[in-house]
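Letters spell out the chain; backbone shape is given numerically. Take this protein:
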Amino acid sequence: LHRVNELLYAGKWATTAARSERVVLEGHNAAVNAVCAVERHGRNMLVTGGSDGNIRLWDPLTGQAELVLSTEAREVHSLSKIAINDSKVYLLSGDDEGKVKVWHPVTGQCVGELAGHEQPVRSLCVVTRAASRPLIASGDSGGTILLWDGLTGAICRRLSGHNGAVLDMCEVTVSSEVLLASAGLDGSIRL
């Protein structure tokens, strides 16, 4: 209960009956660090990455893992997806070896690797710009963000500024300009 202007009230959410989860997905042998959704065989799948170094593609209706990808890394810290030419979708993973790996979600094959970080890749984000190629943004434990050409895999730009890990990133449009927002362990948010 909270007191506002000497009146007691309780939020409506506080009186809502508890619900159990629809399904609990279990299969990782350690912490689950990342989650995203991707389409596979025309169905929406849930993708998870964990401290066991594995990526799992789950059917959210059945709760069953349909594909397990071994990344050869100790830990998977981040996941995202990228659409190329609006027809091909690939899965992206960031790991403790400082690499961003590109995966085909249907075959489960690693089809590319972006190497350039000296620290573990903690966050991933795809930035789509009108009439331009998509960019892959990867943030690491040392505070560096690399921007990659989404088609060629070439590094376009190196950004610094965070004092510590880049924990999350997202695309944001401000006054019709597409920007990258990053959140850091240092308590700052940078655009």
